[in-house]
């Protein structure tokens, strides 16, 4: 089955710096890679996702890159702000259908210091 | 509100109690999920329902019993739990079929087993 490794587990950056979180996956059949953000005491929310037919996707200050050959994908946050502080989860699985087979990483706690 | 409502938000119970967690979604989704979120662990999928039918049960102990009376409601019945079952239990829903990828989570029910 799929296995998702996420690094680092904690990340602290200064406001304005960039943050990068990396995930690797094991199942080459996985073709959908979402990222969820969970603020303290709140629910996880999808912030960006990518399918395996593209290598990069951007949405304002966040971007995700995918290397299918190496089976890893990364979340990039530029010009970080204090409100970016949260736990970020990556996931991998098949595209479409129910999400019963999305496998999540352990999460990265990002702290942005003013 | 994101459209997925969970009650209660907090629950403390003894090991011999019987309680239930409730989840309700008004998004028109046909798939609903229970996840367990423990500290420093990945989100663990427990149960999946598609169109009210259980399609996945990830080796969850029988002391957790799901119920899905219709596509909008999902319950998790709890009995004779153990202290290690203390966690945040997240409900989620999604559409189904091609392109149906986004999980919408509820705010979670924080369970403490004494």
Describe this structure in words.
- The complex is a heterodimer of chains A (114) and B (114).
- With 114 residues, chain A is mostly beta strands.
- Helix content of chain A is 0%, strand content 54%.
- Chain A has no helices and 11 strands.
- In chain A, the strands form 2 sheets. In chain A, strands 2, 4, 5, 9, 10 and 11 form a 6-stranded mixed sheet that branches.
- Chain A is globular and about 40 Å long.
- The model of chain A has no long low-confidence stretch (mean pLDDT 92).
- With 114 residues, chain B is mostly beta strands.
- In chain B, 0% of the residues lie in helices and 56% in strands.
- In chain B, the strands form 2 sheets. In chain B, strands 2, 4, 5, 6, 9, 10 and 11 form a 7-stranded mixed sheet that branches. In chain B, strands 1-3-8-7 form a 4-stranded antiparallel sheet, with no helix packed on it.
- Chain B is globular and about 40 Å long.
- The model of chain B has no long low-confidence stretch (mean pLDDT 89).
- Chains A and B meet through strand 4, strand 5 and strand 10 of A and strand 5 and strand 9 of B.
Itemize the secondary structure elements and their pairings.
The complex is a heterodimer of chains A (114) and B (114).
Chain A lengths: L3 E4 L2 E5 L4 E7 L6 E7 L6 E7 L4 E4 L2 E6 L4 E6 L8 E7 L10 E2 L3 E6 L1
Parallel strand pairs in A: 2-11
Antiparallel strand pairs in A: 1-3, 3-8, 4-5, 4-9, 6-7, 7-8, 9-10, 9-11
Chain B lengths: L3 E4 L2 E4 L4 E8 L5 E7 L6 E7 L2 E5 L6 E7 L2 E7 L7 E8 L9 E2 L3 E5 L1
Parallel strand pairs in B: 2-11
Antiparallel strand pairs in B: 1-3, 3-8, 4-5, 4-9, 5-6, 7-8, 9-10, 9-11
How many strands, what sense, and barrel or not for the largest sheet of chain A?
6 strands, mixed
The proportion of residues in beta strands of chain B is over 45%
| Structural class by secondary-structure content of chain B | mainly beta
Give the ordered list of helices and strands of chain A.
Answer: EEEEEEEEEEE
Cα distance, first to last residue of chain A? 41 Å
Order of helices and strands of chain B: EEEEEEEEEEE
Q: Structural class of the secondary elements of chain A? A: mainly beta
Overall residue-averaged pLDDT value of chain B? 89
As a whole number of angstroms, the C-alpha radius of gyration of chain B is 13 Å
Describe the oligomeric state of these chains in a short phrase: heterodimer
Largest sheet of chain B: 7 strands, mixed
The strand count of chain A comes to 11
- Poorly predicted regions of chain B are none
Q: Which value, in Å, is the CA radius of gyration of chain A? A: 13 Å
Strand share of the residues of chain A? over 45%
Mean pLDDT of chain A: 92
Describe the global form of chain B. globular
Percent of residues in helices of chain A: under 10%
The number of distinct helices of chain A, counting runs of at least 4 residues, comes to 0
Counted by DSSP, the helix tally of chain B is 0
